[in-house]
Amino acid sequence: MKLIRFGEAGKEKPGIQVTDDKRIDVSAFGEDYTEDFFTNNGINRLAQWLEIHGQECPVVSNETRLGPPLLKPSKIVCIGLNYTDHAAESNMQVPVEPILFFKSTTAIVGPNDDLIIPKNSTKTDWEVELAVVIGKRASYVKESEAEDYIAGYLLHNDYSERHFQLERVGQWVKGKSCDTFAPLGPWLATKDEIKDVNNLRLWLTVNGKMMQDGNTSNLIFKVPMLIAYISQFMTLLPGDIITTGTPAGVGLGMKPPVYLKAGDVVELGIDGLGSSKQAAKNYEG
From which residue to which does any coiled coil extend (predicted)? Predict the structure, then answer.
């Protein structure tokens, strides 16, 4: 299944992306896509419910706004420098074990919502990434069993303010957590939808120019290893997001560097996970 949430920001309803051009409203199921939904076998229960009630579900207009495909995950755990080519363009060493940092959940927005360039920003950058959604509580997971903890996958643009991230004192989280810096979706594809997560093309354009064009086959640390590794240091809850890193082609790596300005349009996509588009606007406040 492909889980979506649709409607006005803050008032989204749960739905399903049935085909490329058909969406349905599953509000009658009675649950949104929350931690409790994933904890209580929600994906399988929803699939069973749809077999009986699917034909009764209202169709959702394709003009309706899409929100983030899940509601209020407890955390977003990010992996840094997880593609060799991106480490090289960043002038950083390839890590010997995963680099972990957090992204605030207040950065989450819908897939096609505007990117707001933060106040005092000079170096807002883009990063197309494969994100993994955890399906059940995970602590001290074995790598061989990690697949059992996956609910599904998402498209994520890990926007980053490089001055905040790299040139100011402290951790990377400051440059990763600004409002609108985590557009998710258009949908959450359950893991059965993705036949080979290690062979997905991911791409990103700015104003129609291809900037990133990579493949998850080049991940340094694969998804099962990441789940096992992170779960040694913290408990992952159902609905938590692990975002797995970006390939080469970010603005930081250009010579000279290129950063986003108001009026720019960023488009991105991953095989099987759809595409999204964000228009950049300056902060007003």
Answer: none
